[in-house]
Amino acid sequence: MTLPDEIDGLLEAARGGHRRAxxxxxxxxxxxxxxxxxxxxxxxxxxxxxxxxxxxxxPGSGKSTLNSAVVAIAREQGERLAVLAIDPSSPFSGGxxxxxxxxxxxxxxxxxxxxxxxxxxxHLGGLTLAxxxxxxxxxxxxxxxxxxxxxxxxxxxxxxxxxxxxxxxVVNPGWGDSVQANKAGLMEIADIFVVxxxxxxxxxxxxxxxxxxxxxxxxxxxxPPILTAVGTTGEGATELWDAVCAHRDHCxxxxxxxxxxxxxxxxxxxxxxxxxxxxxxxxxTDGDTAxxxxxxxxxxxxxxxxxxxxxxxxxxx
Length: 317
Ligand SMILES: Nc1nc2c(ncn2[C@@H]2O[C@H](COP(=O)(O)OP(=O)(O)O)[C@@H](O)[C@H]2O)c(=O)[nH]1
Ligand SMILES: [Mg+2]
Hints:
binds magnesium ion, binds guanosine-5'-diphosphate, single chain, alpha/beta, Rossmann fold
């Protein structure tokens, strides 16, 4: 079957399970620009049904291995899942992603699993805007679960994954003693903790350390469970999947899910606005007005506030 040229047809084919159509749609999302924009507009009203799960943790902590084991369990229960692997530190053909492909190879021929490594070249706002768009498109195309794997090293990655409905933080034995820049950030976003590589010494100490750190933070109505797992054998994968489902049920019952989703779309709006303003300012900065403003600023004829106002007046059109 040849692929339709127009976006609507492509979306319809992708929704009908046509893998090449889906791959093409996701490439458009990745590439950004007007086609991504159009896809976003067409899919927005259809989205909001999928439950999104973020998995984060240091590189090498075993996120992909564990995720693959969890996907297998979910599949046994008849669930369909789309997995987005986002790793800004490694380019599309990089080692980490290649590793992910190998680990995920078990699911290659399974129609109920879709796995995509995301790159975000050409995207206004980068990862922060490309990821929610990608998630929304998968959601609108009928994937009931969208799993987002990202490296929990930077603030942007933490924010992305923290915006999921359920956030899983993967750590390893010894994490309690480690000095990690964004440890507090990870503590804040975790709905579920997993100490993976529980075949190594120090697992129970790490669980205890996390417990203590959690006890110091303000109690919410969901107490994040601290699980242990061995990704390579699949030990603990069932418990992790059960915890994800329990968290989803909890959020649904309490209305927390609706609150989170409203906050998420509000954040995205703010982000889009900021990125659009930045882009317009950058465009102006190349022009005559800008040169003039910079000169006057340098000569101290106008102050930075007046200079900003002059530029912003130009945006207004
Ligand atoms: N010993 C041990 N190794 C593991 C475990 N889980 C994953 N690994 C190994 O850790 C390495 C990194 O795993 P990977 O899933 O790519 O980590 P990611 O970067 O977080 O996605 C691989 O060599 C895995 O085989 C585990 O539970 N125990
Ligand atoms: Mg990985």
